[in-house]
Amino acid sequence: MISDACRKRQREHFPPRVDNDNRMRAKKEVRQIAREMLRASFTDGQLDRGRIGSVVDSLLAKKPRSYLKILEYYKRLLRLEAEKRHARIETAAPLDPQTASQISLNLGRRYGTDLTTEFAVDPALLGGMRIRVGSDVWDSSVRNRLDRLQQQL
């Protein structure tokens, strides 16, 4: 049998799980509300600044529990969504306009016509190119190949 003193120490060291369940439920609710806000921020499949402003204003007017955490998560979702619609193409040497437009066209077919492209020259790549769209990365640079070879040796 467990003594009362032992039970008391157990409660001090191991608080009831109810608090954890409530916190987990609150985090889930924050993520759910932020995702609903993100879905309401689109017009014709594109983020609409006006709708984003009105969604944020309506949240601030209501001020639900944990509204600051909701806004923080909503901001993160907006950043991730914006990154999905932007491509950064890095090359070791400048590309000719025809090649750049062909790359933009191919990426537009894959990711949608609202994709913006940014071309940058990075001599550290030594050759080839690196394309980043959101969390997708294609790295066919010489620098990447040398790094992989070095890891194998």
Notes on the structure:
- This protein has 153 residues and is α+β, with helices and mostly antiparallel strands.
- The protein folds into two domains: 80 residues, no CATH class; 68 residues, no CATH class.
- It has a four-stranded mixed beta sheet with strand order 4-3-5-6. The protein has a two-stranded antiparallel ribbon with strand order 1-2.
- Helix 2 packs across helix 4.
- The longest helix is centred in the N-terminal third of the chain and has 22 residues.
- The radius of gyration is 25 Å and the shape is flat.
- The model has no long low-confidence stretch (mean pLDDT 86).
Key structural traits:
153 residues, alpha+beta, four-stranded mixed beta sheet, two-stranded antiparallel ribbon, 16% strand, flat
User: Which structural category fits the helices and strands?
Assistant: alpha+beta
Nearest-integer average pLDDT: 86
The global form is flat
Give helix % range: 55-70%
Strand content: 15-25%
Give the SSE layout.
Elements: H1 4-13, H2 18-39, E1 42-43, E2 46-47, H3 49-62, H4 67-84, E3 86-91, H5 97-111, E4 116-121, E5 129-133, E6 136-139, H6 142-152
Parallel strand pairs: 3-4
Antiparallel strand pairs: 1-2, 3-5, 5-6
